[in-house]
Structure formats: structure tokens, C-alpha cells
Structure to design on (129 residues):
């Protein structure tokens, strides 16, 4: 199989139902980790690993004053064991790492908080007269 020429495509996880679901969940997330003018330092990598352990799905923002570009940051993070790059849009990178004991996104439907569930229909339809 020929690897994609684009570094953006090379670092992304393969297309699947899981990736589609992760992209949908990641849309509403705000960036939890910012890569600033210090670049992707060991402290930032440690913060990314801790945030991935806590949340599984994390949005990272690469600031414009960062010495590392977004594709370089994505490739470095994708090289970490178990880390998958879900999506790169603008200066945002969406990454995923399956939780070893309690995965939220794999192994069934993701849990949706009660406040976000759609209301059940009453069974009666409103008629116009």
C-alpha cells in the first residue's frame, strides 16, 4: 500500500465509524491544551498524556507563534504509543487515546448525559386546524 504524500493525511487515523463518532464529539470540545511559543516541550507532552488519560478525546490548539507547525505537532503526537490523530482543522488537532480500563467511545454506544438526551415524544401529534 502506498503511503499518502501529504503529512496531514499520513498522520490521521484510518476512516471508520469510530473516527466519524469522535469527530462529531470533538466538534463541541474546547481546546484543553495549547502549544505556544515554547513549542512541543516535554512539559506539554506530559500535559497531553495526562489530559488524554483523563478525557480520551482532546482538542489541542497550536498557536501561530509556536515554532512547531500543526502538522509537525500532529506527527510527533501520533508517534506516541496508542495516540491517534482524528482530525486536523485549522490550528486545532483532535487526538484520541483509548482508556485502558474504561473506554467511553469504543465497545458500545458512548454515554450521553441526561441533559443532552433528546426529549421522548409524547406519542400525540399536534394537528393544524
Amino acid at each position: 500500500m502506498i503511503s499518502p504524500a501529504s503529512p496531514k493525511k499520513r498522520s490521521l487515523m484510518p476512516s471508520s465509524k469510530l473516527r466519524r463518532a469522535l469527530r462529531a464529539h470533538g466538534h463541541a470540545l474546547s481546546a484543553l491544551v495549547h502549544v505556544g511559543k515554547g513549542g512541543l516541550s516535554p512539559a506539554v507532552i506530559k500535559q497531553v498524556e495526562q489530559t488524554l488519560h483523563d478525557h480520551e478525546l482532546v482538542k489541542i490548539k497550536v498557536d501561530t507563534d509556536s515554532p512547531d507547525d500543526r502538522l509537525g505537532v500532529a506527527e510527533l503526537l501520533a508517534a506516541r504509543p496508542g495516540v491517534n490523530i482524528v482530525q486536523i482543522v485549522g490550528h486545532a488537532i483532535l487526538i484520541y487515546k483509548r482508556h485502558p480500563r474504561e473506554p467511553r467511545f469504543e465497545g458500545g454506544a458512548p454515554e450521553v448525559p441526561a441533559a443532552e438526551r433528546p426529549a421522548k415524544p409524547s406519542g400525540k401529534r399536534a394537528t393544524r386546524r
The helical segments are 7-11, 17-27, 42-55, 70-78.
